[in-house]
């Protein structure tokens, strides 16, 4: 372990263990039914867990393409060698102990064999029948001419992509150029790209003197924590980070690592294309979007609002309520959705006034971080989840205390989701 102390690591592990032992005192009686959850990330794993904790006899099957989930949260710290991937990898053993049936496989389609049943197709496996399907597959990327992610990583899904970008950064010469592109919003984790620029700049200053970071942002300005990141770019990392707003990425030369944009071509030593995003593939292929990007849902129960799709729910980054795409709020949406599904099994209407909340911590240097938080409440007049203005908060400035708190916050979220 490098800049993450043993104490931090024990904190992460310890919180997970403590919550694993939480008694199932919330178990409701006499409920039965079948739910199939596709995607075991922050949204899907939380949903599966809380359906079992609260739902008594409800049969819950969680399907994920991988045997364990690698968290995007904290994954920028893998790039700077402060964490390794194993510290942010979570298996489904605790969920299995709660009675979740875990199936490793890729969901490929959804059918409706009769009026009350949905059937989820899994590649190479027996299909799964249920009354409620919950889709939580995260994001997919929109294509860009010439862009090959195995050469020019996004690292916006953690795992092999994170390792690839880290290896490219390690191999970069001193005095080299790291270029990243930021897609138009909405995208996964509003402050995340700016955080990455800071983490990479800090790492390059320490290990590759004379290197530079160029940010090509499709948005008209910094999307989240504008004051904090402006200061980080112009003061903390002055002379290293160069920020360009309003840059449209038109094409990529993946062999030469060139970003072709409306303001010219940019050739990098390491090119990181965070491509424009849309709902995970199963959501779009099942016809659950109207714009080809995000799934319209009723925020009271996250059920699709597309005619004929009742009983299919979409949570996490794939849903299109306008709430930010964060792991913290995905966890909150999952609890609202689990509660609504259990009420439906009991013949009841969903809670009419759900609230959700979000938090993001952003490392700015190897030992300071900032944070951002907000609460959302259901507005019955517009049927939307609206920001509660008084709840909005940002760190006054990046501090060491925030950096420490970041690990406590993440440990709690990881435990509440996977343990
Ligand atoms: C660098 C970075 C930093 C971030 N920092 C923060 C932060 O500080 N705070 C915060 O709250 N959020 C943060 N986020 C955002 C957060 O990671 C995402 O919002 C969150 O992961 C979304 O959860 P999800 O469950 O919708 O998707 P995911 O967590 O991506 O999970 C999707 C799961 O679905 C599975 N899957 C997909 N398709 C299929 C299929 N067809 N069949 C089976 N399985 C499938 C995948 O294997 C995956 O396990 C960050 C993101 C990044 C990239």
The CATH topology of the largest domain, please? FAD/NAD(P)-binding domain
What is the total tally of β strands?
Answer: 25
Assembly classification: single chain
| Level-2 CATH architecture of the largest domain | 3-Layer(bba) Sandwich
Query: What topology, given as strand order, has the largest sheet?
Result: 5-2-1-9-21
Radius of gyration over alpha carbons?
Answer: 21 Å
Q: Which structural class do you get from the secondary structure elements?
A: alpha/beta
CATH superfamily grouping of the largest domain: FAD/NAD(P)-binding domain
Average pLDDT works out at 93
Could you describe the 3D structure shown?
There is one protein chain. With 419 residues, this protein is an alpha/beta fold. The chain folds into two domains: 6-140 and 278-351, FAD/NAD(P)-binding domain (3-Layer(bba) Sandwich); 147-273, FAD/NAD(P)-binding domain (3-Layer(bba) Sandwich). The protein has ten helices and 25 strands. The chain has helices spanning 6-20, 42-55, 76-79, 93-97, 160-171, 192-207, 226-236, 281-285, 327-345, 400-418; strands spanning 32-38, 57-64, 68-70, 89-91, 101-104, 107-114, 117-122, 128-130, 132-135, 139-141, 177-182, 212-217, 241-244, 249-253, 258-261, 264-267, 270-273, 277-279, 297-298, 303-304, 312-314, 355-363, 369-379, 384-387, 393-394. The chain has a five-stranded parallel β-sheet, with helices on one face. The longest helix has 19 residues, at 327-345. The radius of gyration is 21 Å and the shape is globular. It starts with 5 loop residues before the first helix and ends with a helix. Residues 38-44, 63-66, 69, 72-73, 75-76, 106-107, 136-138, 156, 188-189, 192, 196, 280, 282, 316-317, 325-328, 330, 360-361 line the site of flavin-adenine dinucleotide. The site of flavin-adenine dinucleotide has 37 residues, from helix 2, strand 2, helix 6, helix 9 and strand 22.
């Amino acid at each position: 372990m490098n800049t993450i102390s043993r104490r931090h690591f024990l904190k992460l592990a310890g919180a997970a263990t403590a919550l694993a032992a939480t008694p199932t005192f919330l178990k409701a009686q006499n409920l039965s039914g079948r739910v199939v959850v596709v995607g075991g990330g922050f949204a899907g794993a939380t949903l599966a867990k809380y359906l079992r904790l609260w739902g008594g006899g409800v049969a819950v099957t969680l399907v994920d393409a991988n045997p364990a989930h690698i968290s995007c949260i904290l994954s920028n710290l893998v790039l700077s060698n402060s964490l390794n991937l194993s510290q942010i990898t979570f298996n489904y053993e605790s969920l299995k102990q709660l009675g979740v049936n875990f199936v490793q496989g890729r969901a490929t389609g959804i059918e409706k064999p009769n009026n009350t049943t949905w059937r989820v197709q899994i590649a190479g496996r027996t299909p799964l029948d249920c009354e409620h399907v919950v889709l939580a597959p995260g994001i997919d990327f929109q294509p860009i001419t010439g862009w090959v992610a195995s050469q020019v990583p996004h690292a916006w899904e953690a795992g092999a992509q994170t390792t690839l970008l880290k290896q490219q950064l390690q191999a970069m010469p001193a005095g080299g150029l790291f270029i990243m592109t930021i897609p138009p919003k909405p995208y996964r984790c509003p402050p995340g790209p700016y955080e990455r620029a800071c983490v990479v700049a800090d790492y390059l200053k320490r290990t590759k003197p004379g290197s530079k970071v160029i940010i090509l942002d499709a948005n008209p300005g910094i999307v989240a924590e504008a004051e904090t990141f402006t200061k980080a770019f112009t003061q903390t990392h002055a002379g290293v980070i160069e920020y360009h707003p309003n840059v449209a990425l038109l094409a990529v030369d993946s062999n030469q690592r060139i970003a072709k944009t409306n303001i010219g071509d940019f050739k990098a030593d390491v090119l990181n294309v965070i491509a424009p995003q849309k709902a995970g593939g199963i959501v779009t292929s099942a016809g659950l979007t109207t714009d080809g990007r995000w799934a319209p849902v009723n925020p009271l129960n996250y059920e699709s609002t597309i005619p004929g799709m009742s009983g299919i729910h979409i949570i996490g980054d794939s849903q299109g309520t306008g709430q930010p795409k964060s792991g913290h709020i995905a966890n909150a949406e999952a609890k609202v959705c689990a509660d609504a599904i259990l009420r439906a099994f009991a013949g009841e209407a969903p809670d009419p006034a759900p609230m959700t909340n979000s938090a993001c911590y952003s490392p700015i240097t190897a030992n300071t971080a900032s944070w951002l938080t907000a609460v959302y409440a259901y507005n019955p007049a517009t049927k939307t989840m609206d920001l509660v203005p008084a709840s909005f908060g940002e760190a006054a400035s990046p501090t060491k205390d925030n950096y420490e708190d970041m690990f406590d916050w993440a440990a709690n979220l990881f435990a509440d989701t996977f343990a």
